[in-house]
Amino acid sequence: MPPLAQALALFATARLVGVLVLAGTAWAGGKRPLALLGRSWDSLWYLGIAAHGYGRTQYFRTTVVHSDLAFFPLYPGLIRVVTTLTALSGGAAGLLVAWTAAAVAACGIYAIGARLHGRAVATALVVLWGLLPHSIVLSLAYTEPVLTAFAAWSLYAVLTGRWLWAGTLAALAGMSRPNGLAVAAAVLATAACEVWRRRGRVSHRLWTGAALAPVGWGGYVLWVGRREGDPLGGYFEVQRLWGSRFDFGAGSLRFVRHLLTHGDRFVFPMTMVVVAAAMLLYALLIADRAPLPLLVHSGVLLLIALGGSGFFECKPRFLLPAFPLLLPLARALVRTARARPWHAVLVVGALAGLSFAYGAYLVVIAHTPL
């Protein structure tokens, strides 16, 4: 079996087992697994947009108004295409899109790992991504797999000098989620460094790719702003009314202080541990002198997760597209596997147990927004 196929098979096996554990937990609690996978939390908003377009708003109080304009259009658009071309329901179409995107993302992650550190590290990178504590999200009707698919292949295109592909894929990533901006930032930062290094003597492909990169994210933000009567600030007002805004981490620090002094549900301490681990892994990524586009992409995702207030429990999900953070772990796992194979097996087994159990807990038991 080719190395890429092996990595993809391991990833698919990990996610399949995770889904089976979730299904068993759901059945034990009298719940329907497919409904949980396809119609949980934000999935309902995406399905509504796919079926009826934008226009749904929920009013809770004057300072809390949830509008579907907070959700970017690419994923519901793909669901609409699938339901139009097939007999699938919205939930099934959402799962099909998400699962396909997760496989495409795994291939892109493998390609980056293989280019930088060889096939063994690439396989370990894909497996680790599939066994993150929040990797159950990759099996839900959510947008993270779509964003990660476009992000991985855009970053690979940057690493290989394919600027038109890099810019186009970054634009599509920007239409997937608000933090898709991180992909455009990586393309623009790398392009700027290339222009500086070559003293402006670069091809038109680089300029075009750099110009395309922020179009998806910026276009949707401006469209929402125009619709709301404030072209530059309308989208950010929509997010503010959801309780999400960038406050340089003040809201996150207040929530962490609350956790440390009063405690809370298991989801929140676990979130704090995951975010702290991400910060440590980013420091290791810098120490390893990872390529600039990977540093910028992961750094911007981490900055958005740390600096944004609201929905503290969602921060690990926001970091799922930051797969380069796992490169130091993947390299360490490969070294361990070569020196002490059973130690590596125990590490992967422990990660798998945590991922499967915590994923089932999140979706079936926790009753916490994902």
UniProtKB/TrEMBL annotation:
It comes from the Bacteria. This is Dolichyl-phosphate-mannose-protein mannosyltransferase. The lineage of its organism: Bacteria, Bacillati, Actinomycetota, Actinomycetes, Kitasatosporales. InterPro entries: PIG-V/Gpi18 (IPR007315). It is a multi-pass membrane protein. Pathway: Glycolipid biosynthesis; glycosylphosphatidylinositol-anchor biosynthesis. Its main location: endoplasmic reticulum. Keywords: Endoplasmic reticulum, Glycosyltransferase, GPI-anchor biosynthesis, Membrane, Transferase, Transmembrane, Transmembrane helix. The chain crosses the membrane at residues 92-113, 120-141, 153-173, 206-225, 266-287, 294-312, 318-334, 346-367. It is found in: Endoplasmic reticulum membrane.
